[in-house]
């Protein structure tokens, strides 16, 4: 394929990807930002898996259209492939078409799709092998969104780059960045998590912050307004852990109570409803499945009686959730 044609197709694909965000967010599995340790660590993104073994070697398999596996090709792999021979990989994060990793020496590496600068190497050129990003060796934590990257340095500063269409970088603009940009001047950031097009972070004082796309309330600030700078969510300072999904967010407080907010189309919040939430709601893990006991006060006048939440004309309907004592059906005198 001619390079110009490829660029045209790549541009069309990127526009399509952005325009179809709501549909994609409903259909695609969520990137996992916190590695799970089961003898190895892995990250799942769109059609790919990236993994670390206990010997700190890096492995990848799946779709490889933009080189996101990092094996030097763009060939699909249906078995795990070792990526290079290095055994100093420490942490990994997979976006939708790009991969970010840290080595044990604190250096930052990236590869895959780079249409919006999400690799951070100062270009918009795709890479199919790991590329070191800058020369800094103080990177401490990474998170990959769909098309953007978030990272913390060991000094507690926050950095972001890549697509910024809806303010997910948090730099006060909606301009894409192809090199790491420091977000504000604060050096008390402690934890980060990237959703599809939103970002969540904790500071060392236990406060919760969010920015980016907010169409389903995933920022948790009580609105559905997008934000391009970090916004504190409430005033609580007991937040302990966070995880961002496609269109929702989950968090734990220091008392180990679980909270959730954002999209709830498929019950992903776990609050026993399918209602989206624009601010954090406590997740109890149980649902009240016992229907309210209906009380009807009055006597029959020959009408047909209806039991339910809507009172008939001339009658009072209460339920056991209001603290009013309820009556049994035998208390009703039916003269009809």
Q: Whole-number radius of gyration?
A: 25 Å
Separation of the first and last Cα atoms: 83 Å
What is the average per-residue confidence, as pLDDT, rounded to a whole number? 81
Q: Report the order of strands and helices.
A: HHEEEEEEEEEEEEEEEEEEEEEE
Number of helices: 2
Helix content: under 10%
Chart the SSEs and their pairings.
Layout: H1 3-19, H2 21-27, E1 40-44, E2 48-53, E3 58-62, E4 77-82, E5 89-94, E6 98-103, E7 108-112, E8 127-132, E9 139-144, E10 148-153, E11 158-162, E12 177-182, E13 189-194, E14 198-203, E15 208-212, E16 227-232, E17 239-244, E18 248-253, E19 258-262, E20 277-283, E21 295-297, E22 316-318
Question: Would you write up a description of this structure?
Answer:
- By secondary structure, the chain is mainly β.
- It has two helices and 22 strands.
- The longest helix is centred in the first third of the chain and has 17 residues.
- The relative contact order is 0.08.
Keywords for this entry:
disordered N terminus, four-stranded antiparallel β-sheet, mainly beta, 7% helix, 336 residues, single chain
Please provide a brief summary of the model.
This protein has 2 helices and 22 strands.
């Amino acid at each position: 394929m001619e390079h110009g044609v490829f660029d045209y197709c790549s541009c069309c694909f990127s526009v399509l990807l952005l325009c179809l965000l709501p549909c994609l967010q409903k259909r695609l599995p969520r990137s996992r930002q916190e590695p799970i340790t089961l003898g190895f660590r892995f990250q799942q993104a769109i059609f790919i898996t990236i993994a670390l073994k206990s010997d700190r070697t890096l492995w990848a398999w799946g779709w490889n259209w933009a080189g996101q596996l990092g094996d030097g090709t763009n060939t699909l792999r249906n078995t795990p492939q070792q990526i290079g021979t290095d055994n100093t990989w420490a942490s990994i994060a997979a976006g939708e078409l790009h991969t970010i990793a840290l080595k044990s020496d604190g250096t930052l590496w990236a590869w895959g799709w780079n249409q919006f600068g999400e690799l951070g190497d100062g270009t918009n050129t795709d890479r199919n092998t790991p590329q070191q990003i800058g020369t800094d060796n103080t990177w401490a934590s990474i998170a990959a969104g769909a098309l953007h990257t978030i990272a913390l340095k060991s000094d507690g500063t926050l950095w972001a780059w890549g697509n910024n269409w809806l303010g997910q970088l948090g730099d006060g603009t909606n301009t894409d960045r192809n090199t790491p940009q420091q977000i504000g001047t604060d050096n008390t950031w402690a934890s980060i998590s990237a959703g599809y097009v939103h970002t969540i972070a904790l500071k060392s004082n236990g406060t919760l912050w969010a920015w980016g796309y907010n169409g389903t309330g995933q920022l948790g600030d009580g609105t559905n307004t997008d934000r391009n700078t970090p916004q504190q969510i409430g005033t609580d300072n007991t937040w302990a852990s966070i995880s961002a999904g496609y269109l929702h967010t989950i968090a734990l407080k220091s008392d180990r109570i679980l909270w959730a907010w954002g999209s709830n189309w498929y019950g992903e919040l776990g609050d026993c409803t399918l209602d989206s939430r624009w601010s954090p709601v406590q997740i109890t893990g149980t649902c009240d499945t016992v229907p309210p006991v209906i009380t009807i006060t009055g006597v029959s006048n020959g009408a047909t009686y209806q039991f339910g939440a809507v009172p008939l004309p001339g009658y009072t309907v209460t339920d056991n959730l209001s603290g009013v004592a309820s009556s049994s059906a035998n208390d009703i005198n039916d003269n009809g």
